[in-house]
Amino acid sequence: MTRKNIRGFTTIELIIVMIIICALSSVIYVTYKELRIKEQDTRRKDDLTLLQRQLESYQAQYGNYPTLGDLNNTLWRGKYLKNFDASILQDPLGSSAKLVAAPKPKAYAYIPTPEGCNNEENGQKGVLCTGYSLTATLENGSGYVEKNFN
After folding, report:
1. pLDDT over 70 percentage in the chain
2. pLDDT band at residue 29 using 50, 70 and 90 as cut-offs
3. 124 or 80, which is more confident?
4. What is the DSSP string of 23-90?
5. What is the DSSP-derived secondary structure letter of residue 133?
6. Single pTM value for the model
7. CB 150 within 8 A of CB 59
8. What is the CB neighbour count within 10 angstroms for residue 26?
């Protein structure tokens, strides 16, 4: 019986190739995850900037800022905020396109000032909202804040 010279990969060569593939995969995964986090945080900042522009435009026209209830009211937004895209109210990982009263993960917070301001309701004089802060919680847990220009 003659033995033919069989060519192939040894077990060691296959293990080395698998280790290299695993190492490259982990580098790609970590890079992808970092890019995704950066993209989500950038979207959060962009959303707050767009909302800030809408609020400043409203204030320039009406002399005050809306209440949290106003901003979460679809009919009110349709009447007072022209070309408003409601998707900017929703955090990239959030489940609701509504603003909240205090900062928390996966939601944007809108806090009008002074505390308890209600503008004019039902023809009765109220306390005008003269300022605000918008807050988004970033992936690292820190807060990103936009405030009124005035």
Report:
1. 93
2. confident
3. 80
4. HHHHHHHHHHHHHHHHHHHHHHHHHHHHHHHHHHHHHHHHSS---HHHHT-HHHHHHHSTT--GGGGS
5. E
6. 0.79
7. yes
8. 10
